[in-house]
Write a structure and sequence with these properties.
Blueprint: E1 3-6, H1 11-21, E2 29-33, E3 45-48, H2 54-60, E4 66-69, H3 78-92, E5 96-102, H4 113-126, E6 130-135, H5 140-143, H6 146-152, E7 155-157, H7 169-181, E8 189-192, H8 200-211, E9 217-219, H9 222-231, H10 236-250, H11 260-265, H12 272-280
Parallel strand pairs: 1-2, 1-4, 2-3, 4-5, 5-6, 6-8, 7-9
Helix pairs in contact: 1-7, 2-3, 3-4, 8-12, 9-10
Organism: Hymenobacter wooponensis
Protein name: SDR family oxidoreductase
Length: about 280
């Protein structure tokens, strides 16, 4: 069985590759990357595979049995890029596809959801057995801001008291590897989220506890939060996206208490305190 992973040099892709190497022979793993020169450290076969260049995808997927389609990072182009991958998979006789979608993609209010819904529809129409890994928010999406919050004396956002059931990239990588290396997942949709739900005020309290400093949570209007992010150097369009996703979190878009992730991976998801501690090191 040959397993291929798209976006293999991304943060999630690299984790999946490393975890796979511990479970299956290295010669069964194929890293699909835009620039193979940046993937020499992965220790597995690498093939050029550009989401936007169908000709590279058709070559890259030759002989592949199982594919992990990690969603593209290019918001606004994802639906087309993912369709290119699925079409190439059909032409090469790929036997199953696991796709990293979005938590509750079928009814999520997040602006990111439309492209995921489109890809899920493409998979259903493809005739290829598939598994939907509807990943929730990465805890790192928030904890990457911990050093800045400590330096600035507050953690800012627009999520009000919305509960967030995030998990780490490592947790989501474990889920992907489980689906790639075990049977019985075809046709299934997994709503993947952390065991522990928290508010951004809870996150700020954990930062305060670990640093011994008073780091409050300051909830801002969406426009003000977007402006603050832009002032920190975040591109304006992305800043507005981040702020809007926080606003959706305020209404429950990032909450899920089904614990399907920990059930799938066979262990609890990483505690928030652990991820905060890592961010503070």
């Amino acid at each position: 069985m040959r397993i291929a992973i798209t976006g293999a040099t991304g943060q999630l892709g690299r984790l999946v590759i490393e975890k796979l190497k511990a479970l299956v022979p290295v010669d069964q793993i194929v890293a699909l990357v835009r620039n193979p020169a940046k993937a020499t450290d992965l220790g597995v076969e690498t093939r050029e595979a550009d989401y936007a260049k169908p000709e590279t995808l058709e070559t890259a997927l030759a002989g592949v049995d199982t594919l992990l389609l990690i969603s593209s990072s290019e918001v606004g182009q994802r639906a087309t890029q993912h369709r290119n991958v699925i079409e190439a998979a059909k032409k090469n006789g790929v036997k199953r596809i696991a796709y990293t979608s979005l938590l509750h993609a079928d009814n999520s209010p997040l602006s990111l959801a439309d492209e995921h819904r489109a890809t899920e529809a493409e998979l259903r129409a493809s005739g290829i057995p598939y598994t939907l890994l509807r990943n929730g928010w990465y805890t790192e999406n928030y904890t990457n801001s911990v050093p800045g919050a400590v330096a600035g004396g507050a953690f800012i956002g627009s999520a009000k008291d919305g509960k967030i059931s995030s998990a780490t990239r490592a947790d989501f990588a474990d889920a992907a590897v489980t689906v790639l290396t075990t049977e019985g997942h075809e046709g299934k949709t997994y709503e993947l989220a952390g065991d522990e739900a928290y508010t951004l005020a809870d996150l700020a309290a954990e930062i305060s506890r670990q640093t011994g400093k008073d780091i409050p949570y300051r909830d801002l209007p969406v426009a003000d939060y977007a402006a603050a992010l832009a002032s920190f150097g975040v591109p304006e369009g992305f800043a507005h996206g981040i702020a809007s996703w926080d606003a959706d979190a305020a209404t429950g878009a990032l909450f899920d208490d089904s614990r399907q992730l920990s059930q799938l991976i066979g262990h609890p998801t990483t505690p928030l305190a652990t991820t905060v501690g890592a961010a503070l090191k």
